[in-house]
């Protein structure tokens, strides 16, 4: 951010953060990490109960937290969410776009890609790409007006390599990479060096959505899980809390000259040729 100290810490005290999908495995973990760094955190998502539960958890930990209900695919709902945030706390300093995930009926693990309904492909694309674009365009507008803010998107290893079974998700995440770079350039050139857009690209982490394809009912790894671990130099899945440091950094003044980057957090998966 303009004029910031390049030796600044990761401290986010006094900052207001919005985390879409902030009650999921990744989003919830990042929300906790931002709160731990001093930010007040708004949890935004479709589920009122889940948002309120995560908000209560953050408050029990001593954080200032707020729940806002809204569908990231509904522009009107996002504008209402922005208005609610501004009324409560003022405009955001940080936006983390953690809403998204795989769509089961869009997968083709045991069938031909030609058997996947195109509307399922569209659903995966909209959830993961439009579900970042829409809230960004709403919340970033207030950042642009002030010339200050940090946006962190969630990419994936699926954006870098062809991962079997998840075409729609992969195309969407590749779009996230390009969108991150495009918006970083657009906002910096037109609204100043204080507004930044970056992304993290997690490797393989166990979540509610992917557990069924990675872990058998008896707790043993599936063949797909074993392949992933074999291709990961660190030899294991990631832990959600291992994403926190990079996001705290990107959200803070310590990363004031960092924009338009996608940072792999993958145990070396993207660096390994398999040989």
What does this structure look like?
- This protein is of the alpha/beta class and 275 residues long.
- It folds into 2 domains: 16-203 and 241-259, Rossmann fold (3-Layer(aba) Sandwich); 207-237, no CATH class.
- The protein is 41% helix and 14% strand.
- The protein has helices at residues 25-36, 48-60, 75-88, 118-146, 167-191, 211-214, 223-230, 244-251; strands at residues 16-20, 40-45, 65-69, 94-97, 149-154, 195-202, 262-265.
- The mean pLDDT is 93.
CATH superfamily of the largest domain: NAD(P)-binding Rossmann-like Domain
Helix/sheet category: alpha/beta
Beta-strand proportion: 5-15%
Radius of gyration, Cα only, in angstroms?
Answer: 18 Å
CA(first)-CA(last) distance: 42 Å
CATH fold-type name of the largest domain:
Rossmann fold
Low-confidence stretches: none
Q: Compute the number of structural domains.
A: 2
Q: What is the averaged pLDDT score?
A: 93
Features:
Rossmann fold, seven-stranded parallel beta sheet, single chain, 8 helices, 41% helix, alpha/beta, 275 residues
Short description:
Helices cover 41% and strands 14% of the residues. It is an alpha/beta fold and 275 residues long.
Please write out the topology:
Blueprint: E1 16-20, H1 25-36, E2 40-45, H2 48-60, E3 65-69, H3 75-88, E4 94-97, H4 118-146, E5 149-154, H5 167-191, E6 195-202, H6 211-214, H7 223-230, H8 244-251, E7 262-265
Parallel strand pairs: 1-2, 1-4, 2-3, 4-5, 5-6, 6-7
Helix pairs in contact: 1-8, 3-4, 4-5
